[in-house]
Amino acid sequence: MRILKAILLFPIRLVLLPVRLLLLVALCFWGAIGSFFETVTSILGFVMMVTSVFCLITKIMDVPVFVEMFLAGAAFEAIPLLLIKLGEEGMLGLMDLLGRV
Questions:
Q1: What pTM was estimated for this model as a whole?
Q2: What are the structural domain ranges in the chain?
């Protein structure tokens, strides 16, 4: 029975090998592009947050506008990071699932 299972799984593993390789390459590109995107959005989110604090100190804007701008800066910084990490974990999970076959 064990030999029959190994014989039947060999073509499936042979077909899934290029798929796993493509997922690995996609994961590398995702990490490289994601780190650049993460850096850019972190800088812009930080600038929005600091600008909102300075505008509140100098009385250019009132408190509700400050809260909106501050939260927008925090979201602008956090949401892309969340999407990048979820994409990486999804690809790693898929590679792990294909590796178990």
A1: 0.74
A2: 2-99
